[in-house]
């Protein structure tokens, strides 16, 4: 009886889109974290550095909006990256604090970029170019 119940729970979980997408997110993040470990940053921190590099100085609120992240979650990582000297806070005018990539942050980003490319290739090799492209289209639809 207990075995049947456990099997039923597993079937139900496999049918839960939220659970499945969450599991994929965890697996993909772990893959990227593994590759980025050499550069000493996580996948989320890489994304913060990338956005900072591409968008230039932004307030934490603007960066959170651009990355579609909770401001509190972002602030925690910005604090860590600032302590490591990868980001810096510019002198503020009023209440708006701007954050930007430092020279050291650019160097770490450049090193991490190669690791990121390897993670990209690893993920693409699992699915193939065509299916990866289809997945990206489906994810874009889900994000609306």
From TrEMBL:
<dbReference type="InterPro" id="IPR036390">
    <property type="entry name" value="WH_DNA-bd_sf"/>
</dbReference>
<feature type="domain" description="HTH marR-type">
    <location>
        <begin position="14"/>
        <end position="144"/>
    </location>
</feature>
<dbReference type="InterPro" id="IPR036388">
    <property type="entry name" value="WH-like_DNA-bd_sf"/>
</dbReference>
<dbReference type="Pfam" id="PF01047">
    <property type="entry name" value="MarR"/>
</dbReference>
<dbReference type="InterPro" id="IPR000835">
    <property type="entry name" value="HTH_MarR-typ"/>
</dbReference>
<dbReference type="GO" id="GO:0003700">
    <property type="term" value="F:DNA-binding transcription factor activity"/>
</dbReference>
<dbReference type="GO" id="GO:0006950">
    <property type="term" value="P:response to stress"/>
</dbReference>
<protein>
    <submittedName>
        <fullName>MarR family transcriptional regulator</fullName>
    </submittedName>
</protein>
<dbReference type="InterPro" id="IPR011991">
    <property type="entry name" value="ArsR-like_HTH"/>
</dbReference>
<dbReference type="InterPro" id="IPR039422">
    <property type="entry name" value="MarR/SlyA-like"/>
</dbReference>
């Amino acid at each position: 009886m207990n075995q049947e119940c456990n099997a039923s729970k597993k079937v139900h979980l496999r049918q839960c889109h939220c659970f499945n997408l969450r599991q994929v997110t965890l697996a993909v993040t772990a893959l990227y974290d593994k590759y980025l470990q050499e550069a000493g940053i996580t996948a989320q921190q890489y994304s913060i550095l990338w956005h900072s590099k591409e968008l230039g100085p932004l307030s934490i609120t603007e960066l959170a909006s651009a990355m579609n992240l909770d401001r509190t979650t972002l602030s925690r990582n910005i604090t860590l990256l600032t302590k490591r000297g990868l980001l810096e806070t510019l002198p503020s005018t009023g209440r708006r604090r701007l954050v930007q990539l430092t020279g050291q942050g650019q160097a770490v980003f450049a090193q991490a970029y190669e690791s990121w490319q390897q993670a990209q290739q690893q993920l693409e090799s699992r699915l193939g170019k065509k299916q990866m492209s289809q997945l990206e289209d489906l994810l874009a639809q889900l994000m609306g």
